[in-house]
Amino acid sequence: MGKAKKSTKKFNQRHLKDELERRKEHKKTQKLVQKREVKKKRKANGSADDGEEVFTGVEEIDDLAGFAESVPKGALAKLDLSKFVEADPTAVGGEDVSDDEDIAALLEGGEDDDDDDMPSDSDPEDEGSDVEIGGDDEEDDDEEAVFKRELEAVSKKDPKFLEFMKKNDPSSLAILEDNDEGSEEEEEDDEEQGEEEEEQAEDADMSDAEESGSSKATVVTSKMLDDWEKDINKNQSIKSLKRLLLALYSASHMESENENAPQTPYRIEGMRIFNKTVTASIRTAPKAFNHYAPIVNDKVAQKSGKKWGIAQALIKSYLVSLLELLKQMSDPAMIQYLIKESERMIPYFVCFTRYTREFVKELLRLFGSASVDDGVRILALLSLRRLVSLSPPEVADIALKGIYLTYVRNSNVKTIANLTTIQLMRNCGVELYGNDANASYQHGFVYIRQLAIHLRNSMQLRSKESFRAIYNWQFINSLNFWTEVLATYCGDRAEEQPQLCATLESLVYPLTQIILGVARLVPTAKYFPLRIHCISQLLRLSSATGIYIPILPMIIEVLESPEFLSRRPVNSTLKPLSLDSQLKAPKEYEHTRVYLEIVLESVFGLLADAIAAQSVRIAFPEWVVPAVLQLRRWRKRAGKSWSRFSKQLQGLLEKIEQSSLMVVQKRNKVDFGPANLTGANQFMSDISADATPIGAYANSLRKVKAQQRATMVEAEMEK
To answer: Residues 314-324: pLDDT tens digits?
Structure first.
């Protein structure tokens, strides 16, 4: 088969990839347009049958319906939310493309002893002649001419596509306006600069291909690795670097399942040589890359010119090998080492969109893997955060979406032992959402809206299946995730990132409505644990943001349940149950005293926290009166059946009275009136809630609960 012409090669290098991408984008655009037209027709046909939506739940969900049907503000006004929500999070880069073609230039050469080392600065220019074998008189085989004819045909058949290309990428249509002679004149300067380099590469590739095809793979030895490393460090030898990276590629693909992977001229035998090849490459290659493509302020200083042309294929090969090693390693220490070394290469990853997406995908896989330890997860998060900060916005979207969905997939609580891992993953995800205010708001709006839609559908259907879609750990932990995001950036760190706080603050109200709706969806004693989780979320949100949320009525509703007031509890010898790992009471625990006592302990702890959070407010003495009356009434009615908790409640009421007296004494000394809202908001701002009597009492209960939980986790781990 004849060798391709030089113009064909230039076209493949400069235009082919972009043209293929444009064609794919055009097909996607056409599909989207067709789907939207079908949806419009369906809505038009079904609008006559659609009646007014009726909600059968609590009053708070009336506002939730409006949020579920709303659209985000700003740049998201035209976002197709269904496509965004239903997209496959694992396909972070679109179609997977084989790595073989990107390292073809590196692998074709094999070894070439006649290939001179490329100098670090510049080479003397030598005049050479083109080597063309056949195909000179076959103009139909010229890819550039074929592309021109195809583009002309498409422009005639689909004028809309031509207008789209003129608006978005007019440079790709220059081939229709320029003749062959004009295009040759435009590329004359580039040819003079790159002609010698391309001809040298062609001759080297031909000779190397013949040599590699006729000889067997060379076994890598320790001496060879030492010589290559020494030559690279001393002379910046491209030839030795190329050989070392070929050996690394061979080592990284030893256990690869890709049967189409190109055969390298080197073979790795034994773990000692494997380890030495990997360590030598990681120790040497980044320094050599920094010589030819230096990094300044976390960015590659120059991504053009002869030096970048020399280093580009080598950098790609090194990145491919690193990604392959990350996929294959199972030892946590080795994975951490590779992640750290990969983080050093992030400025080079950013230069190649495809490998950036592959790196994000691999970091997310490690982040959600059950076989890795917490150290790997933390390193993966740190690398991902740095990658997002240096990459274009589309990479941030991929990372934010991926880390949230990875967290949700792995958030199913099976035992109390894996609560720590889920908490760590949640904290890592929250940390990543603090980088970009606009992207964080967009993803927060989409996923909180998705939760609202699920809740609304469940309240309409009122079936067991619809309730199961809400009452599961993935849904509850999704609420936990967004509660922590809003509590962190609209409360704990609001002063550090005021723009992020202002952007996310509008999501607090709809999230609160969703949590209230979930807590009251099935108000039975069996689901007291789930209600306690929801109350904890609201308490965290209210305490951090300073936004008042009516939490006490939900707590009083639990206390006034017939399980505590009228029904006699069943005595049981079952072991104590941890509500942290339960959403509903197991069947054998229903109506038992051991279960109800655990519920009361949690309720009293939440009651103390909720009252303590408001104990430094200027209206605290009046605000707490209704709750005090209801608690005293409950103590009279149920105190005999629950004597231990009656005494605990008496202590709580005493602390409330002491805190009220403290606020009254402070309030008597102020010199402003009720109309001064600024003064009222700053009242007792210098005193922490934990410094009040009720705050100190609540803090002691939290410490006791933390110790009990730690003991249960240790017991679970010993099993």
So the answer is: 999 999 999 99
